[in-house]
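We were asked to recover a plausible sequence for a given structure. The inputs and outputs are reproduced exactly as logged, with field labels preserved.

PROBLEM: sequence recovery
POSITIONS: 254
GIVEN STRUCTURE:
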């Protein structure tokens, strides 16, 4: 089975593009179109971004999209390591600064800072998120099927919390090495703060960008496995407005 350029699978609108650059441009165009519509209606959009190499092409294309009043947009992100120094380049907040936040004049940017009291930081971030609805989430899917840092061992699709501390599983930590974010497995932190699956799914629109052959199996599971914590990305099928952007390597039906 080969998917067309756009086809619904498991309730998700799946788009397969000729390569990573084309995938990134298409995803950025979809985000930009949605933002322009919300801004034209007088809105002040609130967004959540993932920080990962899989998102780089989309973010690179997004920063040059025209006609967006970024001064009316508020940005959050979805997870952060615990225990890294504030200036460690592997911190997700700093990755997003380099790729996005320092390149556009956002009205407000809210970085996650676990600090010395991650539990307090989680509660404070949940409060900031709850001040108004979230309009758009730009996210990916992990090799183990995680959403944000909700790995299969700790994911709770009915989590009562919005932000929490989690222990990262070995597959997730190895992915960070394979992505070039850390020199070795032991360099990857063992714990992080993450937005929970229900918090992500309460957004109005989800734009999910998942390139690369290492994600093919996770994409297949997200689309076809029973919805459950064994593959947290299956929860995307519970949301009414998800677009999944793939390249040929990540397309499980190619």
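RECOVERED SEQUENCE:
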């Amino acid at each position: 089975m080969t998917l067309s350029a756009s086809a619904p699978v498991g309730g998700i609108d799946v788009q397969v593009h000729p390569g990573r650059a084309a995938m990134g441009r298409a995803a950025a165009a979809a985000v930009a179109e949605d933002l322009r519509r919300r801004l034209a209606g007088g809105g002040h959009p609130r967004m959540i971004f993932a920080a990962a190499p899989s998102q780089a092409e989309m973010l690179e294309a997004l920063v040059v999209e025209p006609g967006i009043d970024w001064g009316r947009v508020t940005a959050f992100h979805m997870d952060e390591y615990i225990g890294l120094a504030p200036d460690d380049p592997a911190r997700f907040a700093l990755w997003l600064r380099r790729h996005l936040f320092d390149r556009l004049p956002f009205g407000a940017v809210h970085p996650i800072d676990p600090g010395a009291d991650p539990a307090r930081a989680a509660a404070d971030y949940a409060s900031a998120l709850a001040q108004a609805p979230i309009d758009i989430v730009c996210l990916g899917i992990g090799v183990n099927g995680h959403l944000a840092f909700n790995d299969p061992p700790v994911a709770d699709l009915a989590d009562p919390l919005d932000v929490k501390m989690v222990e990262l599983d070995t597959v997730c930590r190895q992915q960070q090495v394979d992505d070039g974010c850390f020199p070795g497995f032991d360099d990857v932190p063992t714990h992080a703060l993450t937005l929970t699956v229900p918090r992500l799914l309460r957004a109005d629109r989800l734009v999910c960008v998942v390139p690369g052959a290492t994600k093919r199996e996770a994409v297949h599971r997200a689309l076809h496995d029973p919805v459950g914590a064994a593959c947290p990305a299956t929860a995307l099928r519970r949301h009414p407005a998800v677009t999944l952007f793939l390249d040929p390597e990540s397309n499980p039906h190619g």
